[in-house]
Design brief:
2 strands; Arp2/3 complex 21 kDa subunit ARPC3; 7 helices; mainly alpha; single chain; 3% strand; 184 residues
Length: 184
Amino acid sequence: MADRSLVHIAFYAALIAALGLVPPVAIPFLGGVPITAQTLGVMLAGVMLGPVRGGLAVLLFLFLVALGAPFLAGGRGGLSVFASPSVGFLIGWPIGAFVAGWIMRATNDLNVLVAAAISATVGGILVVYIFGIPGVAYMAGLSLPKAAIASAVYIPGDLIKVAITALVTQTVARGLPGALFTRS
C-alpha cells in the first residue's frame, strides 16, 4: 500500500507540473486576465487522493519548484518564487488540497459530482485565497481589501476549474472507482 501511495503522490505532483505547461487563457470580459491550469491539479489532488496524499502531492511539487525545477506556469521555479506576490497562494495550495480531500471524505453520502464541486470550491478556492490574498497584500504593499479585489478577477477561472474537477472526479468514480481514494 505504501508503494502505491507514493506512486499516486508522485503522479499528481507530475500532473500539477504538466498543467503548468498549459498556456494561460485570457478571459476578455475580465480585461484579459490570464488564467492558468495549475490550480486544477491542486483541486484534483485533494479531491481524488484525500487529505494526506493530496497535500503531500502538492508539497512534493513545491519542493521540486523550490529546488529550481521550472514547473510553475510560465516556466518559473527556484526559491525566488517564494518571495513573490504569489507566495501566499503557493503556501495555500497544499492546505487547500488537504481541505478538499477532507471535505470529499466527509461528504461521502453526497453524489460524487456535488461533493467534488463543494470540496474543490472550499479547498481549492476559499482556503487558497485565505492564504493568497494576505500574501499578495504583504509582498505587493497593498491593503487587504485592494489585494482581495485584485485577486477576485481569477475567481471565474477557478470556478471553471471546479467544474472540470467535479466532472473528472465523477467520470473516474464511474469508470475506475478504485482511483478515487476519498471514496474507498
